[in-house]
Amino acid sequence: MTAPDRCRPSSENTCNAGAVHTCQLGNRSSVLANFVSRKIGYSKVYNVTNGIERWIKDGNAVVPAVK
């Protein structure tokens, strides 16, 4: 997997489209969210704190992946 060109205000890319990251407990997705916001330049990056397990345990909605 390759990263997109670094975000520049004048470039047309998906850096402002937003990205949500999640993993089982929230640790790995937090590292990834920090990377894409600081190193690649995405401006709308969200991490599911405490991971998908907590999200489901708290009764939040989950949509199955499309195959």
Low-confidence stretches: none
- Output the strand order for the largest sheet: 1-2
Give me the secondary-structure category: alpha+beta
Q: Work out the strand percent.
A: 5-15%
Query: What does the main sheet amount to?
Result: 2 strands, parallel
- Note the overall shape: globular
* Strand runs, count: 2
Topology as a string of helices (H) and strands (E):
EHEH
Task: State the separation between the terminal residues, measured CA to CA.
Answer: 20 Å
Any idea what the radius of gyration is? 14 Å
Q: What percent of the residues sit in helical stretches (DSSP H or I)?
A: 25-40%
Short recap of the structure:
Strand 1, helix 1 and strand 2 form a beta-alpha-beta unit. With 67 residues, the protein is α+β, with helices and mostly antiparallel strands. Helix content is 31%, strand content 9%.
List keywords for this structure.
67 residues, alpha+beta, two-stranded parallel sheet, 2 helices, 31% helix
Description:
- This protein is of the alpha+beta class.
- It has helices spanning 27-40, 51-57; strands spanning 19-21, 45-47.
- The chain has a domain at 19-57.
- It has a two-stranded parallel sheet with strand order 1-2.
- The longest helix is centred in the middle third of the chain and has 14 residues, at 27-40.
- The chain is globular.
- The model has no long low-confidence stretch (mean pLDDT 79).
